[in-house]
Specification:
The chain is built from seven helices and no strands. By secondary structure, the protein is mainly alpha-helical. Keywords: Membrane, Transmembrane, Transmembrane helix. This is Transmembrane protein.
Length: 169
């Protein structure tokens, strides 16, 4: 029988790469959310888009949910295709397809969420889910930032930045 301490250490060691991947995806989305939301807001100033956004803004909660979910779900096949290409060894095309779908999805998600958030938060289950996602994001970040590899990377980054400043001065 396997030693329970070994099993716990193994799960902890194997779990970190997945937490790191989740943190990278969350960071990418957080990093893109604001600038892409602003870009989509500017596009929303076009007359036709402005009229569509006005309709979305007035949508009742369940219709707002559909307006938010349908564009994001429609990009899922592209993300899966990117992962499939990666699995087949097509690194560049797989990453290109996946990241393109991620960027487009984040842009649409940021804008549509900004338009529908008041209606979506009227759905109690959605408000709980949103709060849970925020807590999950904070947990993942805290876990990654507490890992020795993260702390080492931060020290290296700070050292390089300080060294470059010294060279400049």
């Amino acid at each position: 029988m396997t030693d329970p301490r070994f099993k716990k250490r193994l799960l902890r060691a194997l779990g970190f790469p997945f937490v790191l991947l989740a943190a990278l995806l969350i960071w990418l989305e957080d990093w893109l959310w604001q600038p892409l939301g602003e870009l989509m807001r500017r596009i929303g100033q076009l007359p036709l888009i402005r009229n569509i956004e006005a309709l979305i803004r007035r949508a009742p909660p369940w219709l707002a949910l559909a307006c938010f979910a349908i564009p994001l779900v429609s990009l899922l096949p592209f993300k899966l295709a990117g992962l499939w290409l990666l699995g087949k060894g097509h690194l560049f095309s797989g990453m290109s397809v996946f990241l393109s779908a991620k960027v487009v999805g984040t842009a649409l998600g940021a804008r549509i969420f900004a338009l529908t958030r008041p209606a979506l938060m009227q759905l109690a289950w959605f408000a709980r889910l949103w709060a849970g996602l925020i807590r999950l994001r904070e947990y993942v970040y805290a876990r990654v930032k507490a890992h020795p590899a993260w702390r080492l990377a931060r020290r290296i980054k700070t050292g390089i930045r300080d060294w470059l400043r010294q060279l400049r001065d």
